[in-house]
Amino acid sequence: MGLAANPRQVKRFINSFLLLLSIASMRAMRINHRLIAGLVGLQLRWPAEYQDLAEAVYSEDSDPLAGLTSADQPDLARYSKAFFSPTPKADELRAVMHLAESVTQPEPYSGYQSGEYQTTTASAQELREVASSEILTALGRKGFKESARAAHIFYHRELPNHRVRIGKTVVRFEAKDPLGRWLLGLSLYLTKALPEAVEMIDDFSLLRARTNSAIEASHGPASLPRPDIFEH
Asked: Per the domain annotation, does 228 fall within a domain?
């Protein structure tokens, strides 16, 4: 389902999977074997999506797997629903990701780019690169500035409690709750939601409204950010 019987990837998967099981056993870790298999397969076949998932997990997003099961690639969505359902708990997912990353690392190029997999979505990476460029242009046009401390995170002086984060496959709109934590509002796929993302970047009222509405739905009204106040 994930590796399409590609011999090189299947061999790498088996070696990595057996090694992870051995390490888990030595550490006396109670690990969901299917979850390990799912994450290793994701690393090998969809490295960009894996990196976005890892970022979401480590950022403590309330539903980090949501983007995979509604992915713009049908085979990835099927794979995710098969391996990550029912949704694992955040602590379990984080522990398995730490274990998996101790042995394997996402490849720099996915099977779609290298041509290992014959699929109608072979140009997905090219589409993402074009979309990312358009997002960056829109951010620059509206006066957003990239964070000096973290790449791909953008702030605007008129939006002190909101920010935009560009991932490998998605653009995220986040807001700061009253405790100072950044929460995910919307996560939009670069390949199929570019106009929607640009519209939000161009319209601050829309960006606030949609981001806040999503946060309220996921976290409750107590997590809504304070009103944006800035000095002219």
From this structure: no
How many residues make up the chain in this entry? 232
DSSP 8-state secondary structure symbol assigned to residue 84:
S
Host domain of residue 88: 7-114
Name every residue whose Cβ is closer than 8 Å to that of residue 165 and which is 6 or more positions away in sequence: 152, 153, 154, 171, 172, 174
Q: Of the segments 16-30, 50-64, 89-103, 108-122, which one has the largest average pLDDT value?
A: 16-30
Q: What is the DSSP string of 107-157?
A: -SS-HHHHT-S--TTTTHHHHHHHHHHHHHHHHHHTT-EE-SSSTTEEE-T
Number of separate domains in the chain: 2
Tell whether pTM > 0.85. no
| Residue where one domain finishes, among candidates 114, 137, 169 | 114
In this structure, of 6-15, 36-45, 83-92, 107-116, the range with the lowest mean pLDDT score is: 107-116
Residue with tokens 């829109």: 138
